[in-house]
Amino acid sequence: MPAIEEVTYVHDRMRQVFRNPRVVLISGYARLPDSVASHSQYQRLGVVLAVDTADGRIVAADTTLLTDLAKDFFRALVEGESVTEDIAELVRRVQTRYAGQSGAALTTALRRCLESYHQLRDDHQLPSGEE
């Protein structure tokens, strides 16, 4: 069970993210390999990114990877990075640093997130931050 301080930090951090009208939540999914332990429960791996449209920075990230360590590792790899600058480098970083059996599904789900963001941007459907 997480410490109270950790829960409070996460809650406060999410409150700040949600208060920013420029932040959008995007998601992507990919099929898990049959050999992965969580396949029978989930069958798909999900990646969710909160992106500030003002600068394209990932302000929060999550994934349906099974262990907290894997989730934290993924967050450390992508949070603070840009979805508009070198997205090939972002995907490459995850491919080379995450060597788990779900790696291919993780990078596919990440790519789908990035594609969703760029589609929204190209269709002018991203918030401008004006209220």
What would you say about this model in short?
By secondary structure, the chain is of the alpha+beta class.
Distance, first to last CA: 38 Å
- The structural class is alpha+beta
Strand tally, please? 3
What number of structural domains do the residues give? 1
* Main sheet specs: 3 strands, antiparallel
**Low-confidence blocks of residues:** none
Largest sheet: spatial strand order: 1-2-3
User: Mean pLDDT, nearest integer?
Assistant: 85
Coarse morphology: globular
- Estimated radius of gyration: 15 Å
Query: Order of helices and strands, N to C?
Result: HEHEEHHH
Separate helix tally? 5
- Strand portion: 15-25%
CATH architecture: 2-Layer Sandwich
Reported by name, the CATH topology is Enolase-like, domain 1
Question: Secondary-structure map with pairings?
Answer:
Elements: H1 4-19, E1 23-31, H2 39-42, E2 44-52, E3 57-63, H3 68-78, H4 87-97, H5 103-122
Antiparallel strand pairs: 1-2, 2-3
Helix pairs in contact: 4-5
Keywords:
131 residues, Enolase-like, domain 1, three-stranded antiparallel β-sheet, 5 helices
Please explain how this structure is put together:
The chain has 131 residues and is of the alpha+beta class. It has a single domain (4-122), classed as Enolase-like, domain 1, CATH 3.30.390. It is 47% helix and 19% strand. Strands 1-2-3 form a three-stranded antiparallel beta sheet, with helices on both faces. It starts with a helix and ends in a 9-residue tail after the last helix. The model has no long low-confidence stretch (mean pLDDT 85).
